[in-house]
Amino acid sequence: MRLNELQIKNFRNYDEAHLTFDKNLVIFLGENAQGKTNLLESIFVLSMTRSHRTAQEQELIGWEQENAYIKGVIQKKHATVPLEILLTKKGRKTKVNHIEQKKLSSYVGQMNVILFAPEDLSLVKGSPQLRRRFLDMEIGQINPIYLYDLVQYQKILKQRNQYLKQLFEKKQTDELYLDVLTEQLVEFGSKIFLARQFFVRRLEHWANQLHHQISQGKEQLAIEYVASLPLADHTDLATIKTDFLAALTKNRDKERYRQMTTVGPHRDDLIFLINQKNVQTFGSQGQQRTTALSVRLAEIDLIQEETGEYPILLLDDVMSELDDSRQLHLLKTIENKVQTFLTTTTLEHLKNKMTVEPEIYYVQQGLIKGENAQ
């Protein structure tokens, strides 16, 4: 999969830009705070419909503008597909092949991207919420049904928590409606549990291979899916539903008192282990970086295995965060395999490591210079 063309209008600090891409390695070069990351962000938004940097869509729209527009033309194995997204202060509209898409699940997955940025260390060091978001975004790209189940689950979870609060405050007394919400939560939540378990198992397979190579055979990486509901290694959907319902039934009095649902995918987490030691607690910064790198690179093969297409890789100023050996391994892993968009303030650390000729764009104060920039 390749991105052949990118158009943006009123996005962040860009009034308008039109770029075409001929090569597999595209470098956005410039000083800090010039707009390099904004270009990668526009590609990410085109893929996922939302930013990795902010939940406030208004921040994506240019100053004193009503909307922002992004269009990309992607080349798949058997088709060229135009994608469009219009961001307004009221929401967003998406199009595939010029046809408006009403459902998120019918749009996300058209263009698969992997983003690796310095803040990816938070995947290892940060909160469980960040790791759940990682799971949701990555599984959602390769499994549209997962996105639908997730949206439904989140909607029902909100309703159930509100109703638990009303029961606690004696504003409601009907336990039957709580039963209905509980059954719906179990229906969608169980599918999420199962999809996450399956994804993490496959991710661990690829990530451990890469980590073993990067560490020169010294370290083994394991990824544990810590579900809020105990899951057997090879469980099925029916068993998960039974166990999930039993856990919610057992916790009902506690949940009413706390006015919140205490068991479900919204309480899940991941643990990364190097040689059986928790990387978050006991790992060095180098090990944490290697873990984050291994996980991101593992997604390349995982997505290709699932979809038959390699994803597009976005590297936001990460080369300066990696030592020489990790830089070399990263470039070796991606060369001639995936189209890569990379931001950097200098080419010095790349000159002797690149084996393919890059396409370079110079970025300064929202203006882009390059032979294919318009």
TrEMBL record:
Keyword Isomerase attributed: no
Name used for this protein in its record: DNA replication and repair protein RecF
Gene name linked to the record: recF
RecF/RecN/SMC N-terminal domain residues: 3-367
DNA-binding among keywords: yes
InterPro entries: DNA-binding_RecF (IPR001238), DNA-binding_RecF_CS (IPR018078), P-loop_NTPase (IPR027417), RecF/RecN/SMC_N (IPR003395), RecF_2 (IPR042174)
GO molecular function: ATP binding; single-stranded DNA binding
Gene3D superfamilies tied to this protein: P-loop containing nucleotide triphosphate hydrolases, RecF/RecN/SMC, N-terminal domain
CDD domains assigned to the protein according to its UniProt record, in alphabetical order: ABC_RecF
Residues at which ATP binds: G30, E31, N32, A33, Q34, G35, K36, T37
PROSITE patterns per the UniProt record, alphabetical: RECF_1, RECF_2
Keywords: ATP-binding, Cytoplasm, DNA damage, DNA repair, DNA replication, DNA-binding, Nucleotide-binding, SOS response
UniProt-listed GO biological process terms: DNA replication; DNA synthesis involved in DNA repair; double-strand break repair; SOS response
A Pfam family: SMC_N
Function field: The RecF protein is involved in DNA metabolism; it is required for DNA replication and normal SOS inducibility. RecF binds preferentially to single-stranded, linear DNA. It also seems to bind ATP.
Similarity field: Belongs to the RecF family.
Subcellular location: Cytoplasm
Predominant location: cytoplasm
One GO cellular component term: cytoplasm
